[in-house]
Amino acid sequence: MKNLAPYIFPVILTLLGGTLLVVGGMQGQNMWVMLGSGLILLIGVISLLLQGGIINRKVGLLLGAVFGLLALVLAYRNYRSVKEVLEFTAQKRVNDSQVIQALKDIRTAQVGYRQANGVYTGNMEVLRGFVKSGRIPMVRSVGQVPDTLTEAAALELKLIVRDTLLASAMDSLFLAPRVQEGRVYPFDANTFGLSPVTKQPFLLKAGAISSSNRNVPVFTAKDPTPLVAGDTLMVGNMEKQSTAGNWSGE
User: Fold this and answer.
1) Could you identify which of 49, 75, 80, 232 might form a hypothetical disulfide with 226, taking C-beta atoms 3.0 to 4.6 angstroms apart as the criterion?
2) Is residue 242 part of a domain?
């Protein structure tokens, strides 16, 4: 057993390095993790060679010093790679929340535009102009409905009348207290339709599809410069009647 004792630690290093390489390869670990695992395996092998007398002590110490320095460099790089991933994830979360808010604003404006015009618009300048100075027809009931009647019955008996008012699109859609709650950033009509992250205009389309033998207006708005290629945030759909966004929770 005494003769085997010096080999225990080198064997452990060799097995550990080999296991980390296999597991890292299966999990798709980054380059720095794989290099570090390979270095552990190499140190274990060299330690075994040193204990077996295949290489002399001087060479073993030199290789140990070199590999020890490399291990420190790789450990730092691995730390940085993990930290960079965490930093990028945090930054993406912030960026996405801002882009989603902007897309929600476009959806709100499009719904108001359709209410006023019967269709959506594919022109961002037109939509921005509507937000700034457009009007939305709003129906209100004048009078009081008795407890014994429905609103429809009261309307038929002319106990109440309905009046159509034209309300400011910006005031009713974006500046009313009830719509200010929970916003990620304050609404600004001058930057409406621009990505709050890159200041580039959102990609806006509008059209109509046939549904139940009638034409139904549709639209889409997309992030022009997604942080991750292939992970584009968008709202609306050009192929079906939907104003939902493609982000989580919608």
Assistant:
1) 232
2) no
